[in-house]
Amino acid sequence: MARTDLDAAGRVVELITGGWRAQAVYTAARMRLPDLIAAGSTTAAELAAAAGAEVEGVRRLMRLLVAMEVFDGDERGYRNTPASLALMDEPESLRDMCLLYGEEFYTAWGQAYESIRTVRAGFEIAFGQALYPYLGTAPDLAERFQAAMRSGNLFFDYVPDVFDFAGKTVADLGGGPGRLLMAVLGAVPDARGILLDREHVVPIAKANLAATVGLERIEFVAADMFETVPAGADVYVLCRVLAGHSDDAVAGLFAACRRAMDGPDGRLMILERVVTDEGGTVLPALWDLHLLMTNGGRHRSLDTFRALLDRAGLDVERVVDLPMETTAIIAAPRG
User: Fold this and answer.
1) SS3 for 176?
2) Are 123 and 131 in contact (CB under 8 A)?
3) In angstroms, what is the C-alpha Rg of the chain?
4) Which of 17, 43, 204, 225 has its CA 20 to 30 Å from the CA of residue 269?
């Protein structure tokens, strides 16, 4: 009988215990262990007392997390690392994302087999309702969801580096709370903005932008982007708003942007994760399956985007990589 390939077996064990690792990080974040260490509770006993937990449980959890390099030290004194500092309970941290992914989304992933077999959202299978309607019935979850989405905005500050927005009017369609427009207008003083989103979102965006870049350079439009695209902007931006919609709907939106552009110098910028079946990296493929688990959506390949843009009379002008494995696709009107 042939011996088992030990390297392969070790790799499989590493893969199938990934969920355990994720739950260990989630537990540390929920217990606020990074914050407690920063506040001076550094031993296993001190952390347990401050977190309202048993010493043995905390010690065993920290043993794993130190091995994973989330923390440093031992039970006589733990120290934060850059990874654990990113999980502290403060604005712009990854803590809310960690909590969401460790609770409701972890439950959704528990339906992976049925979700992949039927191409039905794992969240809907697990909770009996699609994600977005469910958020309307669970205010705490909705708040955590919005905070987690903000955690994924780390690439926003880099968008002005890949396109010359100087003197241009930028229409952010489905702009949400306004953070991308905030990054662009904050970096480009003579740019102007249009933010379009649904009626209940616009007041949130207006408050955020009023507190940062001011409202003098911004127009707000309360509408569904698949029904209304404001005319006359120089650049139309679609940031992480396409994954849950059909190809026909997306091609129609691209065509509406093309019609709304102010002349041949207009541009469409798409900011999305892009998947590939050859030579791809893990994170975009993971996010693609995660969309299936949560809302039934999917990420697209660059070839698919090219085809949909072609249907709308647009050609890809440039493709630029951004942090967090996000891609900027900049398209120009044909002819």
Assistant:
1) coil
2) yes
3) 22
4) 204
CATH number attached to the domain at 6-85: 1.10.10.10
The residues of the chain scoring below 50 in pLDDT are: none
First to last CA, the chain: 67
d(CA 152, CA 159): 14
Q: How far is CA 288 from CA 49, 138, 273, in A?
A: 40, 25, 8
Rounded to 5°, angle at Cα 41 from 39 and 44: 150
Structural fold of domain 152-333:
Rossmann fold (3.40.50)
Distance (Å, rounded) from C-alpha 204 to C-alpha 184?
18
71 SS3 class: strand
Q: Where are the domains of the chain?
A: 6-85, 95-150, 152-333
Q: How far is CA 252 from the centre of its chain?
A: 24
- The helix-helix angle for 139-151 and 95-102 (nearest 10°) equals 130
